[in-house]
Amino acid sequence: MDDYSTGYFLDMIERCESTEEFKELLTFLDSERDEWKRVIAGLMEESGLSVSDMAKKCGISRQAVMKWQTGSIPKSRDMFIRIALAAGYSLEQTDQFLKKYGRCPELYAKTLEDAVYIFILSSDHIEHSYQSFLEITDELKRSMDMPAKHSLEESFETGTYMRLLTDVSSVPELAEFIAEHARVYKQQYRKLYAYIEMYIESNLLSEESARDSVYALAERQQWSASLRTCVSEIHNRKWYPQRNKIISLGIHLNMDVEQLNYMLQLAHMSELYAKNPFESSIIFALNSAALEDYVGLTGSDLIWYVKSILESLQYTDIGFFLDELPTGSEETF
Domain check: are 200 and 315 in the same one? Predict the structure, then answer.
């Protein structure tokens, strides 16, 4: 499948005139599942990791690892980083792994969590593990509340941050670095927060909900508990973006593919990936919704339309995302 460009698959998705045609494309995309089975098997064999070892190192269940072994592709960038840590990859290898198999950007020195991963991967005395990440991140978030010691960070390029991070040799030094540049890390997603809040406001200002509240919007659209938490953290400027939550927000806030891709860009993530079965399904559903004039409206029509498309595909790797969408049934599309 590497012989085909992402643009080729985007064109193929746009040419699909029915769910049956798109199902045929999904069957072709299943070759990515086969490739992942080979990758995870080879990785675990080379690292000498059992299912239990991998599960423990990644902070997940044995069942999740066993699903990877049958071709289920991890749903988040963070999980690919955990796998790279478990495999003992270097910083360079982790970046390559993220881009080739996670289809997502390399580690970015100006976001707090990525900065911690960069520090761990650059250290020769800190255990390269997800547990180390959790412990260090918890300590550093307290450093974020300390006043910045200088304002020179505004002139620093990303490459400078990367060099400075790889030179840090201890957790106390890292805490000091984060404290000194707290403003950079706190403001990294300010444009993303503003963009999401603009769309929340536009949904609230619809004619039928002129006196609405975010709570009422969440109730009407049956937001999941995790999605409500995301929006609350966005309001408090404490949210660290997760790719699938961004996709969920885009659908709930009536965005089209271009608008959703822009939101991903603001989160320093790549656009919806046409070679991934799940994300290609989102592209197909939103393109179909646009043709039926469901995109851009306020209310819940787009959510129900997308749900009906995803359910009709009957594709295993999409099932996890249906938990993000309303339960029950609406009108039949």
Answer: yes
